[in-house]
Amino acid sequence: MIQLNNLQKVINQRTALDIADFRVASGEITAVVGPTGSGKDVLFQLLIGQSRPTVGEIQLAGLNPHTEKGLFSRQVGVLFAKDTLYKRQSVKGNLEFLCRLRGLPKSQAAKVMAQVGLADHANERVAKLPSLQEMKKQISEAGEPVLGLAFPDDFDARAQAGVPIELTGYVAHWVEPSRTFDLIAFFEEQISQTTGQPVHINTDGHTVYPQPDAGGRPFMSSMTLVIAVVFVGAFVVPYLMIEEKETHTMETLLVSPARYSEIVAGKAVAGLFYCLTAVSLLFLFNRALINLWGVAVGTAVVGALFTVALGLLMGILFDDPTSVNLWLGAAMMVLLLPMLLAGTMGPHYPAVLRAIIPWIPSAALAQVFRASFSNTVAPSLIWANLGSVAGIAALVFALVVWRVRRMSL
Question: DSSP string covering 58-71, please?
């Protein structure tokens, strides 16, 4: 399988490696040991074709690793001491990437996964994180079920001593119990096979919840909820007012006994119905993610009040849909861009923007929606954010009522 004949490697006029004859038969396991500087790395580079020998010949599986690199890479695999996998890629993703590099069909990746028993876990990802806090953050922000494992300091000693091993497992709160069971069973089996000892993973009491400033799935879900509220309120509600003006029923309402505030309230109720219906559908899709339902529903109501007020203002200020859409487009940029910046850049933008953005209604709503995914949340965060949005909504409603009053003059 491996054959070295009269092999020498000279580096900087110094013989770094000198092997007269060396053979490893197929199926044989051989370890090369030696002190630092004895030539182990030099030998390894020669064996995988990264370096050319000064004198002599190397044969692996009947191939010269340096002169026949193409055939060599297709038939010989190398496992480095430190893995060179892409952490954000799955098992399948890593193998398919290597297939593309080596000109192999993707079917080869599926064949290899089937050979080693990973066909049912092709999309799994494994990564080593620097701290428990970082692991919890990654779990809470993941878009798919993830099992985090904390290995005890005496893991190696327990494995060598033949003592059963218990690992602490962490899983996001929205993951279904059946999926958690499958992940635990898979990793218990894999680690048990590796260590030769029984392994138990305990996830009781280790459920992970996202923080109010979390990114990933919590951020995307909160942004989707805010966009639904904003778009329905801003692009549907204005036409309630425009329709009244086009059909001249607004003139009838203005001379009726109804108060101006009652006219606005009637339109607001209709707008709230549309907004909350849209949000309810999204709540249905995100029901596993939402933990604090009172916070989520309250945020939806306050957000709907704000966008309905904005929609009514646009509808009362302009008489044609073209003007409404033009100004609403500009308003959407002002509302949605800060929310996107707050979620993607975190604290990495100027201090002036960090002071202003929390007062933008969309950013405030998104943060409280994310807080509803958490296990606990500070009341000050809820009152500060929803209070500011409710205050702005009240001012806009007052402006709408004032504008309706002016229309009657």
Answer: EEETTB-TTTTHHH
